[in-house]
Amino acid sequence: MRLVIARCSVDYAGRLSAHLPLANRLLMLKADGSLLVHSDGGSYKPLNWMSPPCSIAMAEPDEDQAAAGITQVWTVTQKKTQDRLIVSIHEVFADETHDLGVDPGLVKDGVEAHLQQLLAEQIELLGDGHTLVRREYMTAIGPVDILARDDAGASVAVEMKRNANIDAVEQLTRYLELMNRDPHLRPVQGVLAAQSFAPQARTLAEDRGIRCLVLDYDEMRGIEGGHARLF
């Protein structure tokens, strides 16, 4: 991972346009090719970013750019959409690169792990005729919580969350992109299973063809009054 603290401006060009005026920011360039632009605020959320697959080109400024004080121009291009994130760097304050190694993945808390176990035991909640293949199906970027098959034999990848947000949709999307490259698995359907959903997560999931399964922890444990439904 490369971490650069620089005075820069950022422009996003593609399906929508956005501009970040000149300011001091953290540029986070990850090994997967993604670039995230952070300010000293806003918690974990970047001001702008480009998700993989993407390519990055670092170039010297042209005459007009140099005259405006720009010393480097980074152009990050999304390979599928051709959207571009253009970072115009004026001054670099710090530039460090660190090898973080292979991440073991998220260690789930007790409730989330128990939800996974319960859904594996009650796989019919996904729909009639569904069967369990295995829990913690490993991919190149981490384990999918549950791999199942529907009544037609098609693969179904299930990601479990207590509270599903946009990050959960993005995580499952990355898993599905990888799994659909495997001729033994594709086509792979996606199901995001959670006790609650942020409205934006539900909208994004439905737009990407990912089903949302609302789980009731108490009902799955045999306590009356709950529900689990797909919508």
Could you explain the architecture of this structure?
The protein is an alpha+beta fold. Helix content is 19%, strand content 44%. It is built from 5 helices and 13 strands. The strands form 2 sheets. A 7-stranded antiparallel β-sheet has the order 4-3-2-1-7-6-5, with no helix packed on it. A 6-stranded mixed β-sheet has the order 8-9-10-11-12-13, with helices on both faces. A hairpin with a 4-residue loop joins strand 1 and strand 2 (18-29). Helix 3 packs parallel to helix 4 (199-207). It is elongated and about 70 Å long. The two termini are 39 Å apart. It is an enzyme of class 3 (hydrolase). It comes from Curtobacterium salicis. Pfam families: NucS_C, NucS_N. Cleaves both 3' and 5' ssDNA extremities of branched DNA structures.
Quickly describe the structure.
The protein has 231 residues and is of the alpha+beta class.
Total helical segments: 5
Enumerate the strands of the largest sheet in spatial order, edge to edge or round the barrel. 4-3-2-1-7-6-5
Helix content percent band: 10-25%
Mean pLDDT: 89
Rg over CA atoms: 21 Å
For the biggest sheet, the summary is:
7 strands, antiparallel
Strand content: 35-45%
Distance linking N and C termini: 39 Å
Poorly predicted segments: none
General shape: elongated
Order of helices and strands: EEEEEHEEHEEEHEHEHE
Main location: cytoplasm
Keywords: Cytoplasm, DNA-binding, Endonuclease, Hydrolase, Nuclease
Function: Cleaves both 3' and 5' ssDNA extremities of branched DNA structures.
Family: Belongs to the NucS endonuclease family.
